[in-house]
Amino acid sequence: MVDVPVAASRGSESAGQETVRGRDVRRSGGLLARHLVLIAMAALTLFPVLLIVSTALKTPQDVRSNPFGLFTSFSLENLQSAWTVGRFSSYLLDSLLLSVPSTAVVIVISTMAGYTFARLPFPGRTVVFYLVVLGLLVPFFTYMIPLYFQLRSMGLLDSLVGANLVLISTNLSFGTFFMRAFFSDLPDELEQAARIDGASESRIFAQVMMPLVSSGAAALTVFTFLSNWNNFLVPLLYLPSGKYRPLTAGLYNFTGGRSMDIGPLAAGTLITIVPVIVIFVILQRQVTQGFISGAVKG
Amino acid sequence: MRAASNVPPVTRRAQARLGIVLALPVAVVTAVFFVFPMVSALYYAVVDFDGLDPTPPFVGLSNFTEMFTDTATWHALGNNAIWIAIGTAAPMIIGLLTAVLIWSGRRGGPVYRVLFFLPFMLPGVAIGIVWGWMYDPVNGWINRVLGAVGLGGLSRGWLGDPDTAIFAVLATAIWATCGFVTMIILSALRNVDVELVDAARIDGANAGQRLWHVLLPQIMPVFLMVLTLTLVGGFSVFDIIFIMTGGGPADATEVLGTYAYSSAFQLNRISYGTVLALLITVLAVPFTIMLNRLQRRLSLQGMGA
């Protein structure tokens, strides 16, 4: 994988010394080589995803005889058995119950806090801000074990509320940082003009400034939702009994259970990744913006 | 802070009041679900807690001395080092070259970006499952391809062989991270001064020289940022290893994260697991801070500030 791009860039190496016409020919040749390399890499990137789709949509007999042959038959049987026997319908519901509330709360709290840290000085603000930033630096590992016993003593272990709260807290540092960057970019004049018009501070926040960061909030929503949807460690640790089990934990449990039933497992994997792919393809601008501006501005 | 001088005191007091109200939720959640368990972690580190005893005995630093004399810790740390070295270098190199290829390829940028970024969005469990199939000793595609090109002698159960397991999992992780690096670097390349690149070409700089001397310095802050993220991720790697091998076969893929998890939740050695987890922090945080500083300095220079 590593030496392929090197070979491709070599194609355009000597382009500099040729005549103009010769250079154009060489460069379009280089262009073709570049795209061939990129297409090969795209194929390598997509292959495992195709393998999931193909295995999920084969007949169970075909999966048994030729488990990983690509698209050799078609049937919805695996999806059906994953949905009913494999309990993936209830995993899907639990995934939603864990991702939707936590995402909503993260967006609300991050927007409020981001605005404060960007534009509203108050005594002690720096201390609170540094504690929130610390959350970006410290790996979740550091405190995940004590948090287990803390949740247990709070009666929040094995509950949707507890798992949601943990998901909220693990996303808040990034969210606050992210929204703060958007609020910091807004011009002071807006705020001053609204103030001269007699708007109260809370009105300036809610009706003047907040609508201007809606694209940022949208990006953060998509990004946070996906990160919660994909989270594996939080349900593994804090929903141990299996009473509530999101798709990620359900899948893991399925791999450990009885004989490796590849057909339904593939179907379950497909159920887990389809929402991710759909959201990503439709909202890819928001997702990538979430990554880029959050990371670069921060 | 901002423009405090021309804001009248009445406004400043109103701002402070609203500020406190708006910051309250984040402060409470951070205090209860982050600061408090962090402090507990320090307490757990100096007692011997088994998960049940409400008053665990104080043991001082003996958890730490045990950790440093435990060969399993060093073994796990060694795997973390392999993970950090290869798992950072490979995605950085592949991601950088891919980004430059897309950038200079003129067409298809958006399509490639979506395709390459996709693996990074997928849940680790799904990635672990499908790559488990790829590495399958009998039917897996890796062995099939090796057989087809006449390298059948190399085929093996990649995840079951202690010599290859860590690299097999690493390759999966690299597959999943390259697109992230590509996308971030690609976004930085948009701000690159193309005239400098053309000038270097006219002066006879080859592709490698142009990349190293012209492109890379211009995107250095972003490059360092991605480097920080991948590097720090290497210390706290957990999901993909836990899912694909569970640390096995015979501890071959054990890293600090999986070792901390199994110590705490499978052997009920809560305090020992906590100390191992603290080690991850102690190793990761200085790296983050150092690289962040460097990045900030470079990006300030870049903006001429």
Layout of helices and strands:
The complex is a heterodimer of chains A (298) and B (305).
Chain A: H1 3-10, H2 20-56, H3 60-65, H4 77-83, H5 88-119, H6 125-137, H7 141-153, H8 160-185, H9 188-196, H10 201-209, H11 214-230, H12 233-238, H13 247-256, H14 262-282, H15 284-297
Helix pairs in contact in A: 1-2, 2-14, 4-14, 5-8, 5-11, 5-13, 6-8, 8-11, 8-15, 9-10, 11-15, 13-14
Chain B: H1 9-45, H2 62-69, H3 71-104, H4 109-121, H5 124-134, H6 141-148, H7 165-189, H8 194-202, H9 207-218, H10 220-235, H11 239-244, H12 256-266, H13 270-302
Characterize the structure shown.
The complex is a heterodimer of chains A (298) and B (305). By secondary structure, chain A is an all-alpha fold. Chain A folds into two domains: 28-74, no CATH class; 85-296, MetI-like fold (Orthogonal Bundle). Chain A contains 15 helices and no strands. Chain A is globular and about 75 Å long. Chain A starts with a helix and ends with a helix. By secondary structure, chain B is mainly α. Chain B has a single domain (71-301), classed as Orthogonal Bundle (MetI-like fold), CATH 1.10.3720.10. Chain B is 73% helix and 0% strand. Chain B has helices spanning 9-45, 62-69, 71-104, 109-121, 124-134, 141-148, 165-189, 194-202, 207-218, 220-235, 239-244, 256-266, 270-302. In chain B, helix 12 (256-266) runs antiparallel to helix 13. The interface between A and B is large, with 105 and 110 residues.
End-to-end separation of chain A in angstroms reads 32 Å
Main sheet: strands, sense, barrel of chain A: none
Instruction: Specify Rg of chain A, calculated over alpha carbons.
Output: 25 Å
Can you identify the CATH superfamily of chain B?
MetI-like
State the distance separating the first and last CA atoms of chain B: 20 Å
How would the global form of chain B be characterised? Answer: flat
Summarize the helix and strand pattern of chain B as letters.
HHHHHHHHHHHHH
Structural class of chain A: mainly alpha
How many beta-strand segments of chain B? 0
